[in-house]
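Whiteboard transcription, Tuesday session. T.W. wrote the structure tokens on the left side:
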């Protein structure tokens, strides 16, 4: 069920027909309640129960279950970036907003790290593919993801507890309780604890210990009160995440003369006979061949982990005034982000990364909506956001002779002082006004439109890059590579209007076809990486997508068969991407610069099928096809063997030609009170990144892969359940990223191997 593109709530077991297994799926993709089959958008919905059944622990895992949707796991998964239909920003800096907007209980999350925490006690998750900037605003150019928490209503007193134990001594405790407080008020409390009794799926040869323990704690309370025409909801949320993240596997690219070895020059890795940078520095160290070829045994130092803490509050007020509904949504989030990553993946300190950032986001939206009935249905709103960000990054190069040879002759910096620091402050102010309507031209033909005006400005202040703490000689306030105060930047949104126009037609009561034109944008801004020159902090401009899309949503055989599909073509302009350029500080190595690389197109489609041939059996499949190409660019990037490659003619990374999933679930009664469920799913994607040269193929390519999952569940009418589950059932070894640290070391990261576990639950 976890792979089901549309997983419905259970209907009452009143008749033994296949269609009776599922009720209508109600979504709020267009900010009002609708049956999902009536929404003219390419949308996939996963219920909260299905997330729990599939052991989906973090929001980024949902991307594996949706066709034409990938999650780019940069630096061990600390900053997951959604890629929908090939639209994404592969930026390893926290200050940049993702291309897919994440909304948690209708509040926008401006950074990818804010939408990556543990998920629990949810009503559902809605994944909308295609530009949604008319209704959802900035950075919805790839799509939008709505995460809706479960809440209590007056009269509710339900609850549950689930205890999960699995591989590597991991445990998960999840519980929730609804409490009715009088005639008009109810409270929903939920708690999550992901942890471990010790162990981990990876072994660090450098640290001599296991690695990979989760450490998450989250608490949510939602108070709902209904007084006359007014409904008020107050949500308070606290979360802490100190989980280990994936240790990278060192790649061995060198010969003893510090050139690329023969295997890499031929497009392959030879971990046993080629050398890492650490081995060139210290030949006594173990080589890359001591590692396993699935990420389970690595040379990395055991330091990769998160240090996140969040406190947020949301107040949602809704009042009916005559036939109109006025809604106010106020949200504030205080998020502290921290993590460490051994970028060189070796036993030495050649490219270690430490980052600490403070994110403060205030969001206020006010909207007014007409009734959901009638030939004309409309809504309009205004939104204001104030987002503040400050960051400290430190690079540990204390064992790296390349950096010593660069900085010692100029500044006299010793090895012990090779800690490069980057600091800056950023502020983004956004406001927008929007409107959306549906008008029934005939009972079966509807025209829908949306329009948004946006105004946005980002300031980058007090940028400083240098050695701020040194001991080798007196230097008040450290040493600046770029003069203090030289890095002050401003970005302002240039093109202000986005929106959509859709024509939908219902030839029958169980089918709909639609055609859409939609325009969306991804914000520009100021790069937040490691600048080697002041030019590395020049603002990049916004990215635009003009989407031409057609689709259909159908149900057959009394809803026993559901087939949905879409086809799209994007005019993709001013595409934002990281470009590799030769380093000015370390000759022969590379820097990464965020810029607009040119124009192109994205073309593809999705097909989703769900069948219920007999009572208790659900079968389904989804497949996505995607082709991307840069058609107009005067920019180049450099391969890892220093070849200048034109962007024009290239395809986008993490835009596989094929992706999708298969699933099957079967439920049968085993007694008058007990039922048994067997479920399995398989998700796949073709190659995610291509090498431009043979060296790039060896060091940067990311092959495609497929992962299978399964579970067996026994449930009783009394409320208890026992589940045996497995993730990555076939123990597939697969690569999630392959790159370098820019100062001589190369690495790759792997996904988790097979895990199994058992869960005990009780509902009341």
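and on the right, the sequence the group agreed on:
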């Amino acid at each position: 069920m976890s792979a089901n593109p549309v997983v419905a709530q259970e209907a009452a077991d009143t008749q033994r027909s296949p269609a009776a297994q599922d009720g209508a799926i109600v979504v709020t993709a267009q900010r009002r309640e609708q049956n999902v089959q009536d929404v003219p958008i390419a949308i996939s919905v996963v219920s909260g129960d299905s997330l729990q059944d599939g052991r989906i622990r973090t929001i980024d895992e949902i991307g594996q279950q949706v066709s034409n949707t990938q999650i780019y796991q940069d630096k061990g998964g600390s900053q997951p970036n959604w890629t929908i239909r090939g639209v994404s920003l592969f930026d390893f800096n926290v200050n940049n907003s993702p291309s897919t907007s994440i909304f948690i209980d209708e509040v926008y999350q401006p950074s990818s790290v804010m939408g990556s925490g543990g998920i629990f006690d949810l009503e559902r998750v809605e994944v909308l593919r295609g530009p949604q900037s008319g209704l959802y605003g900035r950075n919805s150019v790839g799509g939008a993801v709505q995460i809706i928490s479960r809440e209590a209503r007056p009269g509710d007193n339900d609850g549950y507890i689930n205890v999960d134990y699995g591989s590597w001594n991991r445990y998960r405790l999840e519980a929730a309780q609804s409490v009715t407080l009088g005639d008009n008020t109810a409270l929903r409390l939920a708690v999550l604890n992901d942890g471990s009794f010790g162990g981990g799926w990876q072994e660090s040869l450098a640290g001599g210990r296991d690695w990979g323990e989760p450490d998450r704690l989250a608490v949510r309370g939602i108070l709902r009160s209904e007084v006359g025409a007014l409904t008020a909801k107050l949500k308070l949320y606290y979360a802490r995440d100190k989980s280990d993240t994936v240790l990278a596997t060192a790649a061995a690219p060198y010969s003893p003369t510090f050139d690329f070895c023969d295997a890499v020059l031929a497009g392959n890795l030879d971990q046993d006979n080629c050398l890492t940078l650490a081995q060139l520095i210290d030949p006594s160290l173990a080589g890359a061949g001591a590692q396993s070829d699935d990420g389970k045994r690595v040379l990395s130092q055991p330091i990769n982990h998160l240090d996140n803490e969040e406190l947020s509050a949301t107040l949602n007020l809704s009042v009916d005034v005559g036939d109109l509904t006025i809604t106010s949504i106020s949200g504030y989030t205080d998020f502290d982000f921290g993590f460490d990553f051994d970028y060189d993946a070796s036993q030495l300190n050649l490219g270690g990364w430490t980052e600490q950032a403070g994110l403060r986001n205030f969001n206020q939206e006010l909207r007014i909506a007409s009734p959901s009935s009638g030939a004309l249905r409309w809504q309009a709103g205004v939104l204001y956001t104030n987002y503040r960000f400050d960051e400290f990054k430190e690079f540990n190069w204390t064992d790296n002779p390349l950096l010593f040879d660069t900085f010692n002759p100029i500044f006299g910096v010793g090895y012990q002082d090779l800690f490069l620091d980057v600091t800056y402050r950023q502020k983004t102010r956004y406001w927008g006004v929007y409107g959306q309507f549906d008008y029934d031209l005939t009972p079966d033909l509807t025209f829908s439109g949306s329009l948004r005006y946006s105004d946005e400005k980002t300031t980058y202040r007090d940028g400083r890059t240098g050695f701020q703490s040194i001991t080798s000689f007196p230097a008040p306030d450290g040493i600046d590579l770029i003069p203090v105060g030289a890095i002050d930047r401003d970005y302002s949104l240039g093109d202000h209007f986005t929106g959509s126009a859709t024509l939908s037609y219902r030839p029958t009561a169980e089918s709909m076809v639609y055609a859409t034109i939609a325009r969306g944008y991804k914000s520009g801004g100021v790069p937040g990486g490691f600048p080697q020159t002041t030019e590395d902090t020049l603002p990049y401009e916004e990215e635009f997508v003009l989407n031409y899309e057609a689709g259909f949503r159908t149900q057959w055989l009394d809803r026993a068969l559901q087939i949905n599909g879409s086809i799209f073509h994007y005019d993709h302009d001013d595409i934002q991407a990281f470009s590799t350029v030769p380093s000015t500080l370390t000759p022969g190595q590379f820097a990464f610069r965020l810029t607009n690389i040119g124009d192109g197109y994205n073309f593809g489609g999705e097909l989703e099928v769900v069948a219920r041939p007999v009572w208790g059996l659900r079968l389904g499949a989804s497949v996505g096809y995607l082709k991307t190409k840069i058609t107009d660019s005067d920019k180049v990037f450099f391969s890892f063997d220093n070849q200048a490659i034109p962007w024009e003619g290239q395809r986008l990374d993490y835009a596989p030609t094929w992706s999708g999933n298969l699933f099957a679930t079967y439920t049968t009664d085993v007694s008058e009170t007990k039922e048994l469920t067997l479920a399995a799913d398989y998700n796949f994607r073709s190659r995610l990144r291509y090498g431009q040269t043979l060296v790039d193929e060896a060091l940067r390519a990311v092959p495609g892969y497929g992962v299978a999952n399964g579970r067996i569940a026994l449930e009783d009418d009394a409320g208890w359940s026992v589940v045996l589950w497995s993730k990555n059932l076939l123990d597939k070894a697969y690569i999630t990223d392959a790159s370098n640290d820019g100062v001589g070391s190369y690495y790759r990261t792997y996904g988790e191997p097979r895990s199994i576990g058992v869960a005990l639950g009780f509902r009341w």
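Someone added at the bottom: Helices lie at 48-53, 133-136, 262-265, 277-281, 401-411, 694-699.
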